[in-house]
């Protein structure tokens, strides 16, 4: 007896997805509600779970294929193990993409995502020697990059003397299908460029006072709230305060109308194994710094585990993107439609500045505000950015709403 595995409901207005990865192979024992496959939607990865306990049957759909909600992608056979459902020695292999076959060759029983596989191949690593921190111990791109940064990782096998010179002349290419998330990101960003009259204004901010406050209170803060005190809490509060003074920055254009909002749902860009995702802090204007930091920390953990949901991504009236964590000095961020503005944060570095007629060294950060000039005037954009700068340089303003 077999039970069909079908694509579950994916959320409002989402009718299809891409089969990103099979987590269970034919003949593997599965428990009821155990994840057996991963689907990629426009925004997040969704796991398909086993409807019953048994043995994984044949894969009807291969990785990389587009599937509709309700479509059959595989089956669960009755049984409790290899004895109940042995793998026929002469059975025809399940069709897989060339890239997936390469993953099997290079990493034994491990199943790697395209981005992880690419980094493993580039650095000649043995993925079985790297500890995975993703869902069910799977390797993430961050795991591999951390292993590269930590030092040499043993290769899969010793190269024979005759083959040492071969890679020098080899010029390989690999074609990997774009994930649905990456396709959606590309489409939306290009749409933003084509639709909005986008302009970016810059400023720099002296991080001295915020860094001093963080150093002074970080231990007490973590002890009381159970979360580390970072800079995003300060910037989110500063943005919420500035949005109150410049409501057009928090507005959006819908047809021939402008929608103004008296709340701030702040989208924050966090890193996930398949790229950046942008979950939303709801009613950020009502939250304390501690609650903001706790929410962002939870987003980061769930992004890494692949457990963010559609609801986490919906909405958002303004975006904060921190490229500084990757070392960016300056950038011109792109608006996330239908929002009208995005604030880009960058790395902090010591620079000489003039204070009271003296040249001194201060920890400085460049700020970049990209905005839709159809809705936001230059005066409003600059005033907004200066308000954020002033609040960060004098954090007391955040307490007295000045």
Give structural notes.
There is one protein chain. By secondary structure, the chain is of the alpha+beta class. It folds into two domains: 2-169, Beta Barrel (OB fold (Dihydrolipoamide Acetyltransferase, E2P)), CATH 2.40.50; 181-400, 2-Layer Sandwich (Chloramphenicol Acetyltransferase). It contains eleven helices and 19 strands. The protein has helices at 98-107, 114-123, 141-150, 166-169, 180-195, 208-225, 232-245, 289-305, 310-313, 378-393, 396-400; strands at 2-6, 16-22, 29-30, 35-40, 45-49, 54-59, 66-68, 72-77, 198-206, 252-254, 257-259, 266-268, 270-272, 275-277, 280-281, 318-322, 341-345, 349-355, 358-372. The strands form five sheets. Strands 9, 12, 15, 16, 17, 18 and 19 form a seven-stranded mixed beta sheet that branches. A hairpin with a 2-residue loop joins strand 13 (270-272) and strand 14. The N and C termini lie far apart (69 Å). 33% of the residues are buried. Mean pLDDT is 82; it is low at 82-109.
Question: What does this entry show, briefly?
Answer:
The chain is built from 11 helices and 19 strands.
Question: Secondary-structure map with pairings?
Answer:
Layout: E1 2-6, E2 16-22, E3 29-30, E4 35-40, E5 45-49, E6 54-59, E7 66-68, E8 72-77, H1 98-107, H2 114-123, H3 141-150, H4 166-169, H5 180-195, E9 198-206, H6 208-225, H7 232-245, E10 252-254, E11 257-259, E12 266-268, E13 270-272, E14 275-277, E15 280-281, H8 289-305, H9 310-313, E16 318-322, E17 341-345, E18 349-355, E19 358-372, H10 378-393, H11 396-400
Helix pairs in contact: 2-3, 7-8, 7-10
